[in-house]
Design brief:
48% of the residues lie in helices and 14% in strands. By secondary structure, the protein is α+β, with helices and mostly antiparallel strands.
């Protein structure tokens, strides 16, 4: 009795097959035919293989027009369609693939060697989700200047590739729907404010930070030098940091926003000249007089990794994105 069904075939070794190829299954002796069929998808997912969305996509893949399955897939893939895999599955040449993306009206983002495609509606929905995440954070922490980029990416969609998130942010910035203040993103109407008392006390303590911008004293040392209670300084610096004027580079170790912008420029220069930033190189630049050490340089680079400005590869710290990424640290 012959039956027809969807099936996933696991092979002992790789073979060349793309969507639409016909195949025959034989027994171990190759004397008897067990079944046959047509390839629909050579890149099956590892999870949710029987979900309604997956079954709907497999049904669309039966159509010989790739635009049919692409339209459905783009509507399903919130984090974007892997266009390179789609083209490989359909055995599309580069020119034919590019024409298909254009006809489909996809927003195409290059993420390294990968290309992601977003349906117009899906791309707009991501922007609205980002704006909603910002609004929620402003409501939760009104005294904070905004949200750091990497945190906002996770709040928007954790699986969204950084290149796609950066493109989304760039569009919203250009449209004036969000604004940037150094390393922070915020809604244009949002403004963090400091109490007059906090502003006055910070004006007294800030010269201690400015005196050694690349290696400022820690909270306990500032408290000792100024005669201010240590917990008072710590709580003040936390509030100032939430307003975006200080950065907690390490525990109880705050750098001014101007100092961080200057350090970001040094890291960018090291990447341009040497391909990456290393602790020893950063230390040699910022502590030429021997007044600092490797430990602080490591803390600085780890801080840049945390906020998404760099990424660590063994002992090297590579600048994320293009050189223009530095601009968000300099915005006032």
């Amino acid at each position: 009795m012959e039956t027809t069904a969807l099936a996933e075939i696991l092979l002992d070794r790789e073979t060349l097959a793309v969507r639409g190829d016909r195949f025959v299954l034989r027994d171990a002796s190759a004397r008897h035919s067990i079944g046959g069929g047509r390839v629909l998808d050579c890149f099956p997912p590892s999870r949710h293989k029987r979900s309604p969305a997956r079954l709907a996509l497999l049904a669309a893949l039966k159509d010989d027009d790739p635009a049919v399955s692409l339209k459905l897939l783009a509507g399903q893939a919130v984090a974007g369609v892997d266009l390179d895999r789609f083209a490989a599955n359909w055995n599309l040449a580069a020119g034919a693939a590019a024409a298909l993306w254009s006809v489909a009206g996809l927003r195409v983002i290059a993420a390294g060697e990968q290309h992601l495609g977003f349906a117009a509606g899906g791309w707009q929905a991501l922007g609205e989700k980002l704006l909603a995440a910002l609004a929620a954070e402003h409501a939760r922490a009104p005294d904070m200047v905004g949200v750091e980029r990497e945190r906002l990416r996770r709040l928007t969609l954790p699986t969204l590739e950084r290149a796609a998130f950066d493109a989304l942010v760039a569009e919203l910035l250009a449209a004036g729907r969000i604004a940037a203040a150094r390393a922070w993103l915020h809604l244009p109407e949002h403004q963090a404010s400091l109490a007059a008392g906090d502003r006055d006390l910070f004006a007294v303590l800030k010269p201690l930070l400015d005196a050694q911008p690349h290696g400022p004293p820690r909270v306990r040392d500032i408290a000792r030098a100024s005669g201010t209670a240590e917990d008072t300084v710590r709580q003040l610096f936390r509030r100032i940091a939430r307003a975006g004027e200080l950065y907690p580079v390490a525990h109880d170790h705050y750098f001014t926003a101007d100092a961080v912008a200057g350090l970001a420029a040094i890291v960018a220069k090291l990447n341009a000249e040497k391909g990456s930033a290393r602790a020893a190189d950063l230390r040699d630049i910022i502590y030429r007089d021997g007044g600092g050490g490797r430990k602080v340089a490591i803390h600085i680079l780890e801080f840049f990794d945390r906020i998404g400005y760099t990424r660590r590869v063994r002992d090297e710290h590579l600048l994320r994105g293009s050189g223009a990424s530095h601009a968000w640290l300099n915005n006032n």
